[in-house]
Design a protein that fits this description.
The complex is a heterodimer of chains A (114) and B (113). Chain A is mostly beta strands and 114 residues long. Chain A has no helices and 11 strands. In chain A, 0% of the residues lie in helices and 55% in strands. In chain A, strands 2, 4, 5, 6, 9, 10 and 11 form a 7-stranded mixed sheet that branches. The N and C termini of chain A lie far apart (34 Å). Helices cover 0% and strands 50% of the residues of chain B. Chain B is built from no helices and 12 strands. In chain B, strands 2, 5, 6, 10, 11 and 12 form a 6-stranded mixed sheet that branches. Chain B has a 4-stranded antiparallel sheet with strand order 3-9-8-7, with no helix packed on it. The radius of gyration of chain B is 13 Å and the shape is globular. The chains are: A mainly beta (114), B mainly beta (113).
Chain lengths: 114, 113
Amino acid sequence: DTAVSQTPKYLVTQMGNDKSIKCEQNLGHDTMYWYKQDSKKFLKIMFSYNNKELIINETVPNRFSPKSPDKAHLNLHINSLELGDSAVYFCASSGTPALEETQYFGPGTRLLVL
Amino acid sequence: AQSVTQLGSHVSVSEGALVLLRCNYSSSVPPYLFWYVQYPNQGLQLLLKYTSAATLVKGINGFEAEFKKSETSFHLTKPSAHMSDAAEYFCAVSGLTGNQFYFGTGTSLTVIP
């Protein structure tokens, strides 16, 4: 069983479209994260939720809106996609939001905006 | 200011040689420190972490790292490189400010047969 799964794995879309990426974890963790990895492999946290509550909200355009229907799911919706949104988006989870916790990453969603 | 710095974006070693990947952090308070590995087209997985217990931390796949407060470093080492070690390695730090978690810019390790 995959611990942290993301769908879709690949997403190719046109500028201006709206798209969603879904993430699910079956580890029983309380905390989930979204990261963006750019073409130079730089990895930056975007959001973090603990038990469906937003706890980290980095400086991210408000076109990005996370939604956590329950603590096992954290989805990312992106409005009005731009070329610069092209990246790999990783979902992760950890048992608690404690800073020493190990994070478990999904396989990534490769988004290409044309 | 950069919270965590990885020196050398690309490192090449011969199979069987020592692997040394460098990581320095900027903080007056010992943070939590992590090394993650990313194999091609995969997510990151934890190699090891320092959480204020033993300063020499052993991880998976024969890797280890030593926390040196005086040098604000947490370098990753492995005595003998295998071909399967070729991957991207990320140092990460948390506990510096608020509830933030920062990754370094990564070091790509190539192992030469």
